[in-house]
Amino acid sequence: MKTACRHFFVISAIAFLLLSCSDDDNPGSDVTASDLAGIWIVDQVINGNCRGSSYPQNETELFSASQDGNKLVLTNLGSQESIQVSISGQSVSWQITEKDDNDELETSFTGTVSSDLSKITGTANWVYTDKSSSYSCNGTTTINARKAKSTSLDVNGTWNGSWSSSSGILDGTFEVNITRDNSLLTGKISIPEIFGESKDLMGVVSGNEIIFGDIESNILFSGELESTADSASGSYYSEYFGDKGNWSASKNSGAVSSYLVVLDSIVLNQSFTGDITFDGTDFWAISLTQKIYRISTTLGIIDSMDVPGNYPQGLAYNGSKLVIGDGPWGLNKFFKLDPSGKTVVSLPNQNNVTGLTFDGANIWAISDDKIISKLDQYGKVISEIPCRGSFFSGLTYDGSNLHYSSFNMGKTYVYEVSVSGEYIDSIEVSGFFPGGLTYDGSNLWYINSDSVVTIDNAGNITNQFMVPFENHKDMAYDGSNLWIVGNDFIDASINQLSVSGVLINTLKYPGQGATGLTFDGTFLRLADEVTDKIYSISLSGGDYFDRPSFDDINYLTIDESGEFWGLNSTYNQIVHFNNDGSLLATLSSDVADAKGLAYDGSNLWVINGFTSLDKLSKLDANGQVMTSYSSLKTHPEPVALVYDGTNFWYLGGEFMSGEYKLYKLGIEE
To answer: Domain count of the chain?
Structure first.
C-alpha cells in the first residue's frame, strides 16, 4: 500500500472516530453542546498485511475539534485539513470509501467515548486495493484518543535541547520558541542537523505532558514537563527520517522571550531582487529591472535611476552618495552614485552610440542608426534628428549648431547641422574612418587615425600633433585641456592632453567599451557600448573602485569609519574591505539562508529565511550569532535588510506573484 494512501486513511479514520462517538457509560444521552470541543491527542497502532510495509506502525496526530450542537469540525494541526460531520445519537460506526487515481481505500469503524468525554477508543477495519494491478491488502487500526487537559504550567519562551537516536548514530540540537494559547502551542522549531531553516511549530500541552513538532509532521517530540516547567524530556519519532530516540530540553532564563514582529509595511508595485539602503530620508532598493528605486515611507516608490553595470550586487549609503556594486559577471567594480540620478543613465535604445556632446542643458548622442538623439540628464529622449552617412564617430556642439564626422560615398566629412536637423555645411577631412570631435569655443578639434588637428571655420587645418596612444574613439575639451578616450578592452583609459599634445594624466574608465565622450562643465560624460550606459566621471578620477578579490557580494553596508562590509549569501561569508577595494578580513557566518546585511552603529545584523521570514540575528566581531529574534508569524521571504537609525526594515515578497513590501520590524516580549 502506498504511504500517501495509508496516511490518508489514518486521517480519515481519526476524523470519523471523533465525529461519531457515544457515551458507553451513559447510554441514554447524546453527545451534544460542546462536549468534544478542544485539542485531541490521537495515538494509533496500525496492523496489516500490505507488501512493502512493516507492522505494527505507531503514530501520534494532533487535532483541534470545534462543536456546535450535533455538528463537529475537526482540524488536523499539521495539514490544517478540516472535516464537518454530524453526530447522530450514540452509535459509533461508519463506513467510507476513498479513491485516489488507481488507489481505493474502504474503511469501517466502531468505537466508544468515555463517560467523562475525555477519551475515545475504537478499531477501524480497512481494505486497500490497487485497481491498476488488482492488488489488495487489509488490516486494522487501533485508536486511542485523549482530550488535552488544562494546565497552569508556563511553557512560553525559548527552549534549547538535544536529541540522540536510539541507534546511537545520529544526534544533534534543537531550539523551539513557544507561545501557549490554552493547550495549543505555536511558534518556531529549529533543528540544524535536520532542517535547513526554522519551521512553523505545532504542539499541545496537557497537564504536565508536552508534544511538539514541525507543522509538516516530519518529526514529533513527546515527553513530560518538570513541575517548574523549566525542563522537559522524553522520546521522539520521525517516520519521515526513519528515526527515533530520546531528547531533553531546558527553557532559557526569563519567563518570556523577545520576538520579531512587523510594525508597519509599505506596498511596492515593483519586483525586487537586490539590496536596500537608507539615505536618512528615503530608502533605495535594487529592482528586477536593474534600476535603483527611491522609496518614501509615506508615498512608496517616487523615482528611480539606472544601475551602472549589468550585474548589480550590494547597495549602501556613505553619508553623501549611494554605493552599488557590479558583480564579477559584470564590471567587477563599486560605484559611488549621486542620489540625484545623474551619475549614470541608460543610452537610448539605439545601435552603437559613437559620439556625445553637451549643449549646456542636454546630452546629445549620435549612433549608427543614423540618428542624433537629444536626451535630458536622466537619459530620457527629448527629440531625434536624422544624419548623413553610414559610419559615425564624434559629435560636438559649438554654441549654436551640432557637428559630427561621418563616412559617406568613399570620403569622410565633418557635417554641421542645426539642432533641429537642417543641413548647414560640411568639410572633407583626411582618413578613411571618421574620428572624434570637440569644440574649444573657437575651433573644432578632430582626431583621425594617428593625429589630432584643429579646423577653422573654413575647413583649414591650423594645428596638428601626433596621438601618443592607439584605439582612440572620441574626445572632449574641459576649457583648458583635451580628453581623449580609447576603446581598448585590455587597457581602457581616458587620457588628458594639453592643446599642444603633451600627456598630462590618465584615468581608467568604468565601462568595457567606450565610444563617446563629452564635458558638461563639471563631469566628463562617457558612453559605453557594452553596458549601454552614460557615466559621469570626475576630472580627478571616477567615483568607482575595483571590488575586492572575492566571489559574489550580494549585500553591502558601511560602518561608522566608512569601511565596507559585504555578505556572500551563497557561502554565508562576510567580507570586510576599505573604500579602495582592499580586503581587510573574511569571516564565516553561521546563519543559513542569510538574505540581508545591516549595520546599526555598533554591530552587524543579518536576516534569514528560505521561503518565509525566519530570524533577525546580531553578530559578534567574528561573524557568529550573539542574539537571534524569531518571527512567530509567517511573513514573506526576505530579499534585503536595512537599518534607518531607529528600526530595522526588511524587503520581502514573492518572485512569482511580484508582490513586494517593505516591512518595519520591532522586537517585543
So the answer is: 4
